[in-house]
Amino acid sequence: MENTYLMFFTAVIIAFLATPLVRKFAKAIKAIDIPKDERRVHKKPIPKMGGLAIYIAFLATLILKKGPPTRPEIGMIIGSFIIVVGGIIDDLKAIKPWQKIIFQLLGACTLIGFGIKISMITNPISNSYSYIQINNIVSIILTLLWIVGVTNAFNLIDGLDGLAAGVAFIASITMSIIAFLNGPSRMESQTLAVILAGSVLGFLPYNFNPASIFMGDTGSQLLGFLLAAISIEGAIKSASAVVLAVPILALGLPIYDTLFAIVRRKINGKPITEADRGHLHHRLLDMGLSQKQAVIVMYLISAVLGFIAVIVMQLTNTKAYSVLAIVILVIVLLAWKFGFFKHKE
User: What is the rounded distance in angstroms from the CA atom of residue 81 to the CA atom of residue 74?
Assistant: First the structure.
């Protein structure tokens, strides 16, 4: 436990010290976010690519921990490097969505190559902790969909100062608790989640409103990618975990916001990749909340979903999936009531 605390604070310190250096580097190479449309909440140019500091802290702490990196950890290091490279290119040149997907698929395939994949699902109609083994092709498809989906979900939610970072911190803490509850066999996942939480927390003081640096695609995609990978190692690969229900709740806010965006754009005949002002953070701002207030509201929502995910870990399969179904139903009804499926330019 002491070693866990040490790794957490090591990651915090490295990220805190690295962020100002990354900010200078971003300015030097002109990785600057210049507001060009009304969807942008900030009104002045801000350096981006801050996710590089998070990656540096995560990588350095992982290397400094006791013992050599395990096979899954090596997969995450290489896979996240691919995501960071793609993010840096996007922060500099604003690449097209399909080009982002290529980097994400390469990163996901790297994880699969190092054994990080969804290999089983819990039986939703069983009151015990039984699970169903899935074949290799289905395993690969589910893993690719999960990793790419969560990576893009965090990319899309990164719309306010400190939002994606704070939600990722809450999700990381939730994942570390879930891994702890799964027992010693999930210690590696707990370690990874704690290191990521520390890396994000060290960056957050510079990113919270008013932000002096944005994480950019370098950071938002990195956070989604690592959380997707850790969720597979910590929950989905465990027979005692309620597969799908737990990570969907723990990472719920960005997932639901992204799904609502897809549905909203399809209903209104808009391309899925076309940006709009229909995301939850935009709605909260339109209701008159300040940036800080909107971000805190979304932190609270994320924390509640994380708490429910931890509770679900203690339930039987049938009860857990029932809770998930109820939560999804409530969220969909609220989204419908507050007009989340209506298009907003």
Answer: 11
